[in-house]
Amino acid sequence: MTRRRKIYEGKAKILYEGPEPGTIIQYFKDDATAFNAQKKGTINGKGVINNRISEHVFTRLAHIGIPTHFIRRLNMREQLVKQVEIVPIEVIVRNVAAGTLSKRLGIEEGTPLPHTLLEYCYKDDSLGDPLIAEEHIACFGWATQEEMQDISSMAIRVNDFMSGMFAGIGIRLVDFKLEFGRFFDGDFARIILADEISPDGCRLWDIETNEKLDKDRFRRDLGGEVEAYQEVARRLGLLPDEGSSEIMDLDAHRAKKSK
Ligand code: C5P
Fold first, then answer.
1. Residue 241 pLDDT
2. Cα(177) to centroid of ligand 1, in Å?
């Protein structure tokens, strides 16, 4: 294999230079962190599952007209994506109170919110990704007003679509995080959805039992994180056989079956 240039190594992913200019390879690791990397660990096979789940969600979002960085999955742990300039804002979309919202405002976890809440955090690990207001974004020029219009309306559309998608498989989408990037087409920059969508950055609760099927199992030492991630993949139809714990390259599986 030819040596690839590593561009960036994050907490859960590594980015390599892609095969063509303007492309990037996103490699999904099994590493898990929480509380701004104060807690570290591994979730066996997480990278493989998140690669598949994120591919699935991004592909379905593209079908409803959301522009995304996703081009195609390359293998079990890697996907090819468009190179973007990441907007230094984490967009948190909330439907039900949980996590830092519950802590900050003293609202019991699980309380449905009167309407979807969008929050913004400044992407800076050394500062612990602090919560910011739209005024900070405008004041410091992190995104323009037009870009924030695109970002907020896309976040709401993504939430509507994903809430329905997960409800259809018995999962409540409590909250999640999105990242956006600027994709340059000549001099013109367009906002597109970037990063990943997986149980690492979503709170997913079973609709009947409220069982947590996301990274809170790791954050809160609940155990069973591998099984929870697998359960989400299984319900999305991404595991080849009912009850199988093996997440597979579905294309290879189909090819094998048709032989
Ligand atoms: O911790 P908090 O309640 O603010 O998280 C809200 C949502 O955003 C959760 O689904 C969490 O997984 C996600 N999140 C994330 N990365 C961060 C902060 C939050 O994926 N840095």
1. 58
2. 6
Shortest-distance Cα residue to atom 4 of ligand 1: 100
Where are the chain's structural domains? 6-83+225-258, 85-206
CB atoms within 10 A of CB 142: 17
Statement: residue 119 has pLDDT above 90: yes
Query: Do the domains 85-206 and 6-83+225-258 match in fold?
Result: no
One-letter identity of residue 102: S
**Separation of 224 CA from ligand 1 center, angstroms?**
19
Q: pLDDT tens digit string along 120-143?
A: 999 999 999 999 999 999 999 999
CA 136/CA 159 separation, integer angstroms: 24
| Helices of type H across the chain | 46-63, 99-105, 134-139, 145-167, 216-219, 225-235, 250-258
Q: Is the pLDDT of residue 244 over 90?
A: no
- The 10s digit of each residue's pLDDT in 158-190 is 999 999 999 999 999 999 999 999 999 889 999
Per cent of the chain over pLDDT 90 is 89
CB 104 within 8 A of CB 75: no
Q: What is the 202 CA–ligand 1 centroid distance (Å)? A: 7
Q: Which residues line ligand 1 (CB under 6 A)?
A: 90, 92, 98-101, 129, 175-177, 201-203, 215
Looking at the domain that runs over 85-206, which CATH code has it been given?
A: 3.30.470.20
Q: Whose CA is nearest to atom 7 of ligand 1?
A: 176
17 CA from centroid of ligand 1 (Å): 27
What is the dotted CATH code of the domain comprising 6-83+225-258?
A: 3.30.200.20
